[in-house]
Amino acid sequence: MRVAVAMFGFGNVGRFFAETISQKREILADRYGLEIVLTCVTDTTGAAVSAQGLDPGVLLDAKRSDGGAAYCPQYGQPGIDPRSALANARADIVVEATPTNMTTGEPGLSNIKLALSSGMHVATASKGALVLAYSELMQLAKERGLALKFAAAVASPLPTIELADFALQGCEIKSIDAILNATSNCILRSMETGAGTFEEALKDAQRRGVAEANPRLDVEGWDTSGKLVILTNALMGKVSLNEVERRGVDTVTPEMVKEARAEGKSIKLLGTARRVNGHLELRVVPVAVPPEHPLFAVNGIQKGISIDTDLAGRLTVIDGGAGPLATAQCVLRDVVNIARFHMR
Amino acid sequence: MRVAVAMFGFGNVGRFFAETISQKREILADRYGLEIVLTCVTDTTGAAVSAQGLDPGVLLDAKRSDGGAAYCPQYGQPGIDPRSALANARADIVVEATPTNMTTGEPGLSNIKLALSSGMHVATASKGALVLAYSELMQLAKERGLALKFAAAVASPLPTIELADFALQGCEIKSIDAILNATSNCILRSMETGAGTFEEALKDAQRRGVAEANPRLDVEGWDTSGKLVILTNALMGKVSLNEVERRGVDTVTPEMVKEARAEGKSIKLLGTARRVNGHLELRVVPVAVPPEHPLFAVNGIQKGISIDTDLAGRLTVIDGGAGPLATAQCVLRDVVNIARFHMR
Q1: Is this structure's pTM higher than 0.90?
Q2: Of A172, A289, A314, A296, residue with least CA distance to B320
Q3: Do B317 and A316 touch (CB under 8 A)?
Q4: What percentage of chain A carries pLDDT values higher than 90?
Q5: Which of residues 280-309 of A touch B (CB under 8 A)?
Q6: Is the pLDDT of residue A66 over 90?
Q7: Are B313 and A327 in contact (CB under 8 A)?
Q8: Contact at 8 Å (CB) between B93 and B122?
Q9: Other C-beta atoms within 10 Å of B143: how many?
Q10: Domains of chain A, earliest start first
């Protein structure tokens, strides 16, 4: 089966996605009987569009040498807006991979709405729109009979939603504990091993490229809170960002780290969702966890999630520390699952 | 959709399965639109059969009070053989949950062949047949266009096959490291904490009901090897039990445990599958793993698997220590997935 994909955003994740569908062409054909074709790629320069399919190699060249999708030979369209680009793309699935914004949700929010109202399934790697409008977007997708998937938006490459969808049949999820932000986790690790202050650890992380120039979203716990809100909406029930009790790693002092270590514990920025007296309680706070905690060994750029269920007990998934290639794999995961389970 | 299930075997896993589909009736209807009905249950007494569906409560009572499925009021058939029972069951899916035998694969092997040749999908909780005849059974299922699933047979409730099927799209699996046998892991833990010999730890485990009276399959590494062979067949490529380099926890001495501890390490019975020079190398041996090993914290009755991939990096899944209820959930997992993806 041919699957036409239009992709909004052509940064690291988008580039790895284009590369991966090209490199894994045979595996995708053998295992799933799928031919995944890019028919549209947008970025800040405009877009490249061809309903017949774009050559990922040529696209990647255009990005590398000329600075954008709009410079793709033959198919580049400088300055074209997403709506016009999509109208010519004849896509089955829209991959939303633009930079995320947790205040406005844009441009992801508009892109996702545009895709769904154009009758296309969506795999999104950006979380802003989902944090702000999870229920609305899911409802929109449901009304149209479309899939809206987001494996890449919540702690990729952890298989969180897939675990619930495909392995926890019949289970009720009692709680979620998770380490979801690599920057915070790196800073904590660096405070643990170097015994410095938060500010020193942050500067070090920025030097190493682990923390962004504006690290607020990460270190104040907003990123973790956003991911936790999406996960809780997907796995446990309706919640919103303002319900999260939030304290970031910027509140952690060397004394707290030292005290934890003396007790054999390790401080983690833990996101937790729990059902308490019938309502959902969400918290993102630095916690000193003991060695027997399932996420004790999640260090540096690793992420982890521990889900407690009534039937299967507790399941914990931890990644090995992953970058944009793994995020692109999550996008591919969603694209393949949409094709297998929603397009046949 | 109505899904008729015939179940071979009515031990702990079978009983929890019957209980679970009864208790989770509403959730299964709401989430998946499924009504799962037992139309046949066999055990050593014979079977209970009703194409219209058996009442799980009545079945469980018959088991508890009267000693077997054959004593189920109205539908019990003492001494009836599986083939005759199945012929009247009009089942869509056969759940194979008889005690496993890794030398003959029976009665699982015959039951699975009977089910597939009768045109029924299979969810098996017993691993013997798969260890001995993985390729043959998969081929048989494929020829008939049927599903053969086995989430409950390999380290339940770890979502191993589901991970590969639904989350690792496009990935090549480079290696598997796993702790798959709770008895061995408990014995090692007890040697670590009590500093006794293997024999003492084994006796203690037998007293606590963690080890069986005949513990050879577990402590000599056969059980781990069998599970590793199934996993490797499913995830990496064709292998057989005699290819496994195997050494069990019965070869671990207090000195080895002490030495490992002195270095901050912990001895685990580690099953590993690796691609070396184009062929698969399988090993089940006690290994002293350091704290940074992804399975270091898997203790006692816990199990864990760590999978290294080219695209998503390393993913590690650890359970919280689980019993027959979790195994029954794995059977339910397979039944639901078969209904969703193979019966519509």
Answers
A1: yes
A2: A314
A3: yes
A4: 93
A5: 291-292, 294, 296-297, 308
A6: no
A7: no
A8: yes
A9: 9
A10: 2-157+324-342 (3.40.50.720), 165-318 (3.30.360.10)
